[in-house]
Write a structure and sequence with these properties.
It contains 4 helices and 3 strands. It is α+β, with helices and mostly antiparallel strands.
Length: 102
C-alpha cells in the first residue's frame, strides 16, 4: 500500500465530504517516486466550531506515525462544508520548492 493510500484511509475517519491527498514530492528536491511531501484538502462537519489550530491537531493525531517518519511536509487545507462552499470548492495552490523538480 502506498503512503498516500494509507493517509487517505486514516483521514476517512473524519467522514469527509471532500478528501484530496496529493503527493507533491515531485515539486521538491527528493528522489524520484518519493512520498515525502503531501497536500491534504479535507472538508468535514467534524471541523464545525473548531479554530484552525484544533483542526490541524486532529490531523496530526490521525497521522502521528506518518509524520514521525516518512512524511517530511504536510500542507493542510481544512474546511467545514459551508466554508468550502463559500470558497467555491477551491483551495490554494502549493508553491514550488527552490530546487524542486530536479
Amino acid at each position: 500500500m502506498t503512503l498516500q493510500t494509507q493517509i487517505e484511509q486514516k483521514l476517512a475517519a473524519l467522514a469527509p465530504d471532500v478528501l484530496q491527498v496529493e503527493n507533491e514530492s515531485h515539486m521538491h528536491n527528493v528522489p524520484a517516486n518519493s512520498e515525502t511531501h503531501f497536500k491534504v484538502t479535507l472538508v468535514s462537519d467534524s471541523f464545525d466550531g473548531l479554530m484552525p489550530v484544533k483542526r490541524h491537531q486532529k490531523i496530526y493525531a490521525l497521522l502521528a506515525d506518518e509524520l514521525s517518519g516518512p512524511v517530511h511536509a504536510l500542507a493542510m487545507h481544512l474546511y467545514t462544508p459551508s466554508e468550502w462552499q463559500a470558497r467555491g470548492g477551491d483551495r490554494p495552490d502549493s508553491p514550488h520548492c527552490r530546487g524542486g523538480g530536479k
